[in-house]
Design goal:
The protein is built from two helices and nine strands. It is mainly beta and about 130 residues long.
């Protein structure tokens, strides 16, 4: 991602390193992502409003990106990225003036890319 400005996205202090993809729900007005902590018995629920595009890729399917950008782990956010640029080009610039973010979530088994505006609602759910 040579044309990106990813920075760490601080969601919650003391976020566990063992989160794995637990589920996804795409509703008419939001995208809900569930990440489960292996050792803590709780689920991190992320609720994105106004999602314009997203993709979920098995970690092995993004080996090149991870190899070339070792800092792309955990939760990252960018206002400039190849995925965001691709979306703006594909939409013929329709969203060029919108305050969009590329949310990048790398967990133990998947990588999620989400293009949406801020904010994101974050909650812990105890099992």
């Amino acid at each position: 991602m040579k044309t990106s400005n990813f920075e760490s996205w601080e969601l919650i202090k003391d976020l566990p390193n063992d989160l794995y993809f637990y589920g996804l729900e795409d509703t008419s007005d939001s995208l809900i992502i569930l990440l489960k902590s292996i050792n803590e018995g709780r689920i991190l629920k992320l609720i994105f409003e106004g999602v314009l595009t997203y993709r979920v890729t098995k970690e092995a399917g993004r080996s090149k990106t991870l190899y070339e950008n070792k800092s792309l782990r955990g939760f990252q956010i960018a206002t400039k990225s190849e995925y965001l640029q691709w979306f703006k080009e594909e939409s013929s610039g329709m969203f060029e003036d919108d305050d969009l973010r590329h949310y990048y979530i790398c967990n133990t088994d998947n990588i999620l890319d989400i293009v949406s505006g801020p904010p994101v609602d974050v909650k812990w759910i105890n099992l």
